[in-house]
């Protein structure tokens, strides 16, 4: 906390000085000497902000990851309580949860731009920051392709156009290679375990469902809700080929898997009997560049035969990963 | 009990208003970023004299644009819920009545959610939906609480609990079946939350508060008589049906107003009127204004704790009021049995 305040003071000091020097104080965060730029965000709102923002606040773990992947981590001054990747993100000032961020804390950080994502943050929060004169750029990626586009666009908005371009191009290349390898193979029918007690899985409209499709999998559940709660009978009826677990949702995936072998219902499932479990990192559910690692990892586990031959190119390393 | 004079009403209310002022100043001072009392005084002085250019933009944003509107809302919500509580207690002749316990808050919450689903674009749809929901829930509870043509205390409470859980189930059903993205914040809102500023203008909310409390206040002398029994009041010349209708509509309006702004903050309408009665007696001519001020104090204190205890993370203010309120409810329930 003390370190946070020191960082805060350091950030605040030059700006207060600049304001005292200017003859007529400008309204809230607008700084007279700097170039302002305008962008339309994914919601179509016109966002007016300073070019090459130096102080960025992220309201979602995926956005925090993206900012770091764009090599702009040094400019990130505020993150949410849930921003845990890369580990360096934990050293930034926390502004509360994505759903109820602390407005006072955000204002204290003097952000040039606040990044929000529609699937996690609330419209009320965006409006509230807007009324306080703080520019908010909201992204709304719903598919894997959207994430690539959104990464490219964020690079441009945050003043790191070439980084965004390179990162997006690398992602596209890896996706193309993956699609090439999986071409002609029937997708594996999977049940994605978001939560076990109660059983919650993904619907078909979520970003996660699209990430699964890219990994050569399809969710057996076709519900209208984004995160439907499912009866075990439905899982048994659908007979999924694989059960997929993501790291963060289950603190201990192996323990969960062991417990499934003894549970009535689950233990009679073919995928449980045949040990058809796939465990991937929680990045699979985060619309950020790191999702590709998880998608590739899942594809390897579900379709090992597709990767038997020598790789088309070195897919294990990518520009963004080496930077992190 | 001392006789109630106009002088006593003024003294009690002035004392409570002074206490409210103190609480508001302290609430302005404490937060994620603390401000010294001297700086706060300078800031308020500059703001009051219209020289806001003298204030550092940082403090202006935090104190005047974030903290003050939130405190204002806390005061409006607190006063509304407390007066609504006191009104329901008179209307149902039951000291345990409270908009939350009776399920009226759940009715207002359901009304708000339905209005969000059906008429999100219409301005004022949410408070109107909340108002209609509150009226419907009150009517249902009133009906359920009858036993042999009389309002029965325990039947009434049971009716309230049943109504509240039925409405909560409906809310749960709507929240799981409709995957509207904007329903996501609802879980916080249902607990009672003041962390997100409402787009509704505080001036309008204040106007509605004053009108509804004013309307209820005009019946306060009749309410005193009504507490002795409806038959007796009628013999003393009280227009019982009219009084009950005014109080019923006024209390529903206040509950709807509070819920549409802050969700279901529980137990304020129970604790505050009870405390005021203990301190100043149960004459409604004093009880109503004193309860309004006391409710404002209580919710400002609760919300200040909610936003500072685990800062920068914030607790829902409803969790704070329930933490104190539920035990008070049990205490009152046990005492009323003996």
Give structural attributes.
heterodimer, A: 324 residues, alpha/beta, Rossmann fold, 2 domains, four-stranded parallel sheet, globular, disordered C terminus, B: 338 residues, ABC transporter involved in vitamin B12 uptake, BtuC
What order do the helices and strands come in, and which of them pair?
The complex is a heterodimer of chains A (324) and B (338).
Chain A: H1 2-21, E1 36-40, E2 46-50, E3 56-58, H2 61-69, E4 76-79, E5 93-94, H3 103-108, E6 113-117, H4 123-131, E7 136-139, H5 144-157, H6 161-182, E8 188-193, H7 207-214, E9 217-219, H8 232-238, E10 242-246, H9 253-260, H10 270-273, E11 277-280, H11 291-302, H12 319-323
Parallel strand pairs in A: 3-4, 3-6, 4-5, 6-7, 8-9, 8-10, 10-11
Antiparallel strand pairs in A: 1-2
Helix pairs in contact in A: 5-6
Chain B: H1 6-29, H2 37-48, H3 57-91, H4 104-118, H5 125-144, E1 146-147, E2 150-151, H6 153-177, H7 186-191, H8 202-218, H9 220-226, H10 230-235, H11 240-262, H12 268-280, H13 284-308, H14 317-337
Antiparallel strand pairs in B: 1-2
Give a quick rundown of the structure.
In chain A, 38% of the residues lie in helices and 14% in strands. By secondary structure, chain A is α/β, with parallel strands linked by helices. In chain A, the strands form 3 sheets. Chain A has a 5-stranded parallel beta sheet with strand order 5-4-3-6-7, sandwiched between helices. In chain A, strands 9-8-10-11 form a 4-stranded parallel beta sheet. Chain A has a two-stranded antiparallel sheet with strand order 1-2.
